[in-house]
Design a protein that fits this description.
By secondary structure, this protein is an all-alpha fold. The longest helix has 39 residues, at 922-960.
């Protein structure tokens, strides 16, 4: 049996030990007098276990028996109790090695297991024989079996010895002792009673009384056992004479068993008689136990009830209390509480009924903790201490034990009550150091538990001692020891739960907070959780207190209003002093259900203690982390109401009061680590309420302008709330972020989570939900970044925030987010260097040069870090200096909001004047005027400082501009496209301020006359087709992009309205040049003949408006939610500047009206957006103008020109006539190639040829033949813009082409324009034609290959060649939708606008064009002279009607091709269009 159990993991280690190590183990072991729980000390080993393991090793023959016996002899020298313990070990081994059963089963055929047992038995007999000399024969005869004794030779025969043992046992226990009761005389007992009850005092001699008693026993033949009973009775009635009776009993020489049986008979008799044991009887028993006359182990079995009965009753009471706690209104909340004295009086009777508790109380009254501990260990934990008598007695013992250490470490306790050491057996020793607390004080506290509340002075003493220990521990940086953990147990099991049983003691809560605040919040929150989850369910009294608190909280919350906040707050404060966790859980549950409770509840929390605020933060985190609640509504499109209410509550609580914020911030950080962004509203509300920084897409223009100013202007005018009252709360939030190093991790996690939402979410989540989560994360990121920029010092930025390249490469943060967080650091770094270089020099030129030097020095370092962000080929199209400059600047650097400064100064002036009128105290009036005056001065100084700064920045940019756009190094001119994709689009959708910045920066680049930058080409790419961009934006991004387009249209409209402004700001700028020469070092002095004229610009504007109308119309007729929503948002943003032309506005209005009708019941949110736009549109209708007033049309002298002009006024369609080719009279082959190239590029605005610029190009050729070659090799910007003009000049109806068109005769328009140009240039047209022919002859003589001639054509056409066929199909049908042309195809019936009345009012020429269009021989034939386009016209016409529904669905294959081709050139660009369409599909 035992052989399988013998191997222990420690046996091998013990086998390797020597004698010294074994003796060290023995030294560390506890004495045999201690209980089992303390038997194994720290690092030590129980002596019995050690002996047992040594014997096992001896039986296994791993250690020689002589060595083991030697060990035993050495151990006996330091442990005299070795004999008894070794005898117990041998007794256990005797049973384990018993081979009787094996012998019976074997029958001579023993198996291997039996042989092993027989061998072990032989080894045991040999070991036991060697131990006889150490233990002794007497002890071995008492412990070992008879057969073993016979084997050892201690007895001759086991059978004879057993017979003798039975006889003696029968004689002792079963033979009746007969007494001659008839010989006893009652007179003897009478005299005995008189002798024991006569006047006895401390001076009485017990020996004399004993002599009298002995004589009475002899004289009257009294029974000695009955005499001791009389003595105990006398002691019971005179318990104050302890000394006398103890001496008498000791002198009487009564056996302990007789004395114990006599006392046990008394307790048993009281039980049978259903009587109560008196306190004096318990006192007598306790005194005898304390003096050692009887053992508590002997008297304990005589006491009632039994342990099983006691435990059963206690568990039933606990279950009943738990059931009552689940019921409603179990207790009356108005019930008056009783004081501790009355509770003790009521508890007396109950205590005396339980004899075990009564004896324990008597022992504690004698300060005998050592014997009382035996009873505590026998019964359930805290079941005895729940009685008031026991708790009070234990508190008295603790007062005595902690008094010296309390006086030593608490200076203000010097004059408190002194407690002297009680000289009594079993009384704990007083503590003089922190280490002494572990001996008796802390174990007593554990047994006492929360019932220490009966002595609140003792609680305060323990709290102050614990605070002193923790302070010393933290200051010395010691490692955690046993006392540190025992202090935590003291808090969790004793001190913190005791608050639940106290009655409204706020000072006790503050004392507890002084100690517990030293621990980190993680430890504190663990203690709070144990209090709520474990302590309340383990104690009956705590359950009753919990029920009472809930009832009172319900009573208060039913009556709380804004009017009675103060009295309700006081009542809640009283409840929070005792049971804060229970109260706050209930309050938070009500706040989550009813958001109108938030205000009154927040105001009523001002009466809480510090620890209550900390528990409130813990309860809020628990409520947020409730996994059983859904964080989004049933449609998964919006945040749940309970979460939003809880977020608002947390923000207000942490702003108004001072709980620690770190725990909640860490919770949000952990949620982001897990990839969950549903809790971001909590962070948003905290930043909004605590710092005043709020993010809203509904920001007004004035607020947005204020954000472009300095800190003072931002604080005064950029937010809805007043941020003057959030200074302290914002500092607390900043300190919490820095103390736990959470600032940068939150930044990184927010940037990573933004990408995870798009690419890491499940396909089952609706795209609308993904957009909401993305916007929420983006807003939180911007809000958090603004907060760090306002609160963190530059040193903190440098210390915690990694460089740009590290953020992008190691943490996978997108460049827009990385630059957003790093931008404040750039500004401060340049400013610090500038201040050192300037050295307070007021010279403007010197300060400008110093700033430029400082900026160049820092930007050089930044450029080195930024090079690796994008692929190297990117810097061939735009310079890295432009990229870094664009992303490092902000609106503060390039724009000064002078109007907002003046507005705020005027407000302050009015406020100063109104202060004199108000009826306030003079002192307050003076302070208020000083504050307003100082604020006004700050604004003035700040405005001046910002103006100077913007001037320095612009001076720096004017020097850098020449290197921004390098000369073309490849045949594909992608400079503008690269600038848009890497700079404008990512930042334009980032935030509202960044959208305005992008627009301002574009116009700044234009105004600085940056070389190689075409403003017109950038505008054309922006406005050509935005339907794909609209399809990819989230809701907030649509707001930002709409604001960006609004700023662009505002400036475009300004130039369109005023020729003076156009001439001043555009006419001589390279951005409006139609030809860019490679050999021109600077284009600041561009030839005016190469510039776009004002009327031509107005025609291009008309084309851009038409393109926008067509894009919005295609989005509105789509069935996709995202397209419609974003289109309406952007249209609402730009309604002030678009549409301006009345027919375009009518076309959009018809679509919006139909959308309102269709979506009213299906999608109410789209209906609301459409209704809002319709309302704004109506206010704009009166400002719209006819198309003929928007731009001046060409007037020709020939009849054919009049006919073309007439048809041009009746159609919005865009003709692709090749005016340039006709005017220049090129060969048919070159005309065909040029026509097809121009045709493929016209829709994108990348390779369109401007007719007006033809003659200026010819003039350039006249000047120099070498220039002609140069121009032919450069990207033909004039051709790009030429197509734009042709688009604006196209007739409104599709007119059949004449035979003159096929013969490629110059059109009247081209002739007229050519004549005007030549007259202006003063050049003879005949000489120009001759010179052109001569030059063409030279070119033919060079025998250029066909491949080289293809390279000479505009490079931009190669980019869009694959897109042209698809673009045409969409354009044709959308043109008809915009112009109101009905379609004969059944597939487009649902897309036609309900505007039949408008169509009937059109001219006859329009009707005729409809008929011509019905034959499907429209102007598509004229768009390209290539045979392929004409032969496939029918197929294209059919496809166009099929693809008009939605470009995001019907053109997927083309979109994917575009995405692949774009990523080959720019693999770093992830255009949102493709990503979102892919995810959406």
């Amino acid at each position: 049996m035992a052989l399988a159990l013998w191997p222990f993991e420690e046996l091998e280690n013990l086998q390797k030990m020597g004698l010294e190590e074994i003796l060290a183990q023995v030294q560390q072991s506890r004495s045999s007098s201690q209980d089992y729980t303390n038997a194994i000390g720290t690092g030590g080993k129980d002596l019995k276990l050690l002996l047992y393991q040594l014997c096992i090793l001896s039986l296994q023959q791993k250690i020689k028996q002589e060595t083991v016996i030697n060990y035993f002899e050495e151990i006996q020298k330091i442990r005299p109790d070795l004999k008894s313990k070794l005898a117990d070990v041998l007794f256990l081994l005797d049973l384990e090695t018993d081979d009787k059963e094996a012998s019976k089963e074997g029958d001579g055929n023993e198996n291997a297991g039996n042989a092993e047992i027989h061998l072990a038995r032989q080894q045991f007999i040999a070991l036991a024989s060697s131990c006889v000399g150490i233990i002794g024969e007497v002890i071995l005869k008492q412990r070992l079996e008879f057969e073993t004794l016979e084997s050892l030779g201690l007895i001759t025969s086991s059978k004879a010895f057993n017979q003798k043992y039975v006889k003696i046992k029968t004689k002792l226990f079963y033979k009746q002792q007969k007494f001659n009761l008839l010989r006893e005389e009652s007179e003897g007992y009478s005299k005995l009673i008189v002798e024991l009850n006569k006047n006895i005092n401390e001076s009485s001699d017990a020996q004399k009384v004993l002599a009298v008693i002995n004589s009475l026993i002899a004289e009257f033949d009294l029974d000695p056992n009955r005499v001791i009973d009389f003595i105990l009775n006398a002691f019971e009635f005179r318990p104050q004479q302890i000394k006398f009776f103890i001496q008498l009993i000791k002198s009487y020489n009564c056996e302990a068993s007789t004395l114990c049986n006599t006392l046990g008979f008394k307790f048993s008799f009281l039980k049978m008689d259903s009587g109560l044991a008196t306190k004096s009887l318990y006192f007598v028993a306790a005194t005898l136990i304390q003096e050692g006359l009887i053992a508590i182990e002997d008297i304990y079995p005589h006491l009632t009830p039994t342990n099983d009965e006691f435990e059963k009753d206690y568990k039933q009471s606990l279950i009943q209390a738990r059931n009552n706690a689940k019921k409603v209104n179990v207790l009356n909340p108005n019930e008056k509480s009783t004081n501790i004295e009355s509770e003790i009086t009521k508890d007396m009777e109950k205590t005396l009924q339980n004899q075990k508790i009564g004896l324990c109380f008597a022992l504690l009254s004698l300060y005998d903790w050592s014997h009382s501990q035996f009873i505590f260990n026998q019964l359930p934990m805290h079941s005895i201490a729940s009685h008031q008598l026991i708790a009070v007695a234990l508190c008295k013992i603790l007062h005595i034990a902690v008094d010296p250490i309390y006086k030593k470490f608490i200076p203000k306790a010097a004059n408190s009550q002194r407690y002297m050491q009680i000289k009594s057996n079993g009384c704990p020793a007083q503590c003089n150091s922190f280490a002494d607390l572990t001996n008796d004080v802390l174990p007593i506290c554990y047994h006492l538990g929360p019932y220490i509340y009966v002595d609140q002075i003792l609680i305060i003493k323990l709290l102050r001692i614990g605070k002193a220990y923790l302070t010393e521990f933290t200051s010395s940086n010691n490692q955690k020891d046993a006392l540190w953990g025992m202090m935590l147990d003291l808090l969790s099991e004793c001190l913190i739960p005791s608050l639940s049983l106290t009655e409204c003691n706020a000072s006790l809560g503050e004392e507890l907070w002084d100690m517990i605040k030293i621990y980190p919040y993680t430890v504190r929150y663990h203690l709070y959780h144990q209090w709520k989850a474990i302590s309340y369910n383990s104690h009956i009294n705590l359950l009753k207190s919990k029920t009472k608190t809930l009832d009172s909280a319900r009573y208060i919350m039913k009556r709380i209003t804004k009017e009675n906040v103060k009295p309700s707050g006081r009542q809640l404060g009283k409840l929070s002093h005792s049971n804060p966790g229970i109260l706050f859980d209930y309050l938070l549950s009500q706040v989550q259900k009813f958001d109108n409770f938030i205000g009154p509840v927040i105001d009523s929390l001002k009466y809480l203690t510090s620890i209550a605020y900390d528990i409130l933060a813990h309860c809020a985190i628990e409520a947020l982390s409730n996994a059983s609640k859904q964080r989004s509504k049933h449609d998964d499109s919006t945040t749940s109401d309970w979460l939003q209410s809880l977020a608002t509550f947390c923000g207000l609580v942490f702003k108004k009061y001072t709980p620690e914020v770190t725990g909640l911030l860490q919770y949000i950080t952990n949620q982001l680590k897990d990839g969950s962004s549903f809790d971001l509203p909590v962070l948003q509300e905290m930043i909004t309420k605590m710092s005043g920084i709020e993010i809203s897409v509904e920001t007004t223009q004035d607020q947005l302008e204020a954000q472009f100013g300095g800190d003072t202007l931002i604080a005064e005018g950029s937010f809805f709330a007043n941020i003057r009252n959030v200074k302290k709360s914002s500092q607390r939030l900043r300190d919490a972020l820095l103390s736990e190093n959470l600032a940068v991790p939150l930044c990184l996690l927010l940037g990573q989570q933004r990408e995870k939402i798009i690419f890491g979410t499940s396909n089952e989540i609706h795209i609308k939900v993904i957009g909401k989560l993305y916007d929420q994360c983006q807003d939180t990121l911007i809000q958090f970044g603004w907060f760090l920029a306002n609160q963190l010092h530059i040193e903190d930025y440098r210390k915690y925030l990694p460089p740009i390249n590290i953020l992008q490469q190691e943490y996978h943060i997108k460049p827009d987010v990385a630059f957003f967080f790093s931008r404040p650091m750039f500004y401060h770094a340049i400013q610090s260097k500038y201040e050192k270089l300037n050295d307070k020099n007021n010279d403007k030129e010197h300060s400008t040069e110093a700033y430029i030097t400082a900026a160049e020095a820092y930007m050089g370092e930044l450029i080195e870090c930024t090079k690796s962000i994008l692929p190297a080929p990117t810097w061939n199209d735009i310079s890295i200096q432009l990229y870094v400059t664009f992303w490092s600047l902000s609106m503060y650097d390039i724009y000064t909001p002078t109007a907002r400064y003046e507005s705020e100064i005027n407000k302050l002036t009015l406020a100063i004047n109104s202060v004199d009128v108000e009826n306030i105290a003079p002192s307050k009036r003076k302070k208020e005027k000083e504050r307003l005056t100082n604020l006004m001065e700050k604004l003035k100084v700040e405005e001046k400082k910002q103006k100077e700064h913007t001037e320095r920045v612009k001076a720096r940019l004017s020097r850098e501009k020449d290197a921004w756009f390098p000369l073309r190094t490849s045949k594909k001119d992608l400079r503008v496209l690269c600038f848009l994709q890497t700079c404008i689009f990512p930042r334009g959708c980032f935030s509202a301020a960044d959208a305005v910045f992008c627009a301002k920066f574009i116009f700044l680049v234009h105004s600085l006359k940056s070389p190689n930058f075409s403003t017109l080409l950038l505008f054309d790419k922006l406005f050509s087709d935005i339907s794909y961009i609209v399809s990819c934006l989230t809701e907030n991004e649509a707001h930002h992009y709409g604001r960006f387009l609004c700023c662009m249209l505002e400036t475009i409209d300004k130039w369109h309205r005023s020729k003076e402004k156009y001439d001043k700001e555009c006419s001589n700028y390279p951005g409006f040049a139609t030809i860019i020469r490679k050999n021109e070092a600077s284009q600041s002095d561009t030839n005016k003949s190469n510039q776009l004229e004002f009327e031509d610009y107005r025609r291009v504007c008309r084309k851009w408006h038409y393109k926008l109308t067509r894009a919005f119309a295609s989005c509105l007729v789509s069935e996709e939610y995202i397209q419609i929503r974003n289109a309406l948002i952007i249209m609402t943003k730009i309604v002030q500047y678009f549409p301006v032309i009345d027919n375009l506005g009518k076309a959009l209005k018809n679509r919006v009206d139909k959308l309102q009708k269709d979506e009213k019941e299906k999608r109410p949110d789209l209906y609301a957006l459409a209704t809002g736009y319709a309302g704004r549109f109506l206010s704009k209708v009166s400002q719209m103008i006819p198309e003929e007033k928007f731009y001046v049309k060409e007037v020709t002298t020939k009849s054919q020109g009049n006919k073309s002009a007439s048809s041009s006024s009746s159609s919005i369609d865009i003709s692709k006539s090749k005016v340039v080719n006709q005017a220049s009279s090129k060969s048919s082959e070159n005309s065909s190639i040029s026509g097809s190239n121009t045709n493929s590029a016209s829709n994108n605005g990348q390779a369109v040829v401007k007719a007006v610029s033809t003659e200026s190009k010819n003039t350039k050729k006249e000047t120099s033949g070498s220039d002609s070659t140069s121009v032919s090799r450069e990207p033909s910007v004039s051709k790009n813009l030429g197509s734009s003009l042709q688009d604006s000049k196209k007739p409104k109806e599709h007119v059949k082409q004449s035979d003159d068109r096929k013969s490629r005769q110059p059109t009247p328009v081209a002739e007229e324009v050519s004549k005007k140009r030549k007259v202006q240039d003063g050049t003879n047209p005949i000489e120009v034609v001759k010179r052109e022919k001569h030059e063409k002859g030279k070119e033919r003589e060079k025998d250029k290959s066909r491949v080289e001639r293809k390279r000479e054509r505009p490079q931009d056409t190669e980019i869009v060649t694959q897109k042209e066929s698809k673009r045409r199909r969409d354009e044709d049908v959308t043109d008809k939708l915009v112009s109101g042309i009905p379609s004969t195809s059944s597939k487009t019936v649902r897309t036609n606008v309900e505007g039949t009345k408008t169509h009937k009012e059109k001219s006859k020429s329009i009707k005729s064009s409809h008929k011509a269009d019905g034959t499907k021989t429209s102007t598509r034939v004229s768009r390209s002279t290539s045979p392929a386009s004409s032969t496939g016209s029918k197929r294209k016409e059919k496809d166009s009607y099929e693809r008009v529904r939605s470009p995001s669905h019907n053109n997927r294959r083309e979109l994917r091709d575009e995405q692949k081709s774009s990523r080959k050139q720019y693999p770093f660009i992830k255009v949102n269009v493709y990503n979102c369409i892919h995810d959406y599909n």
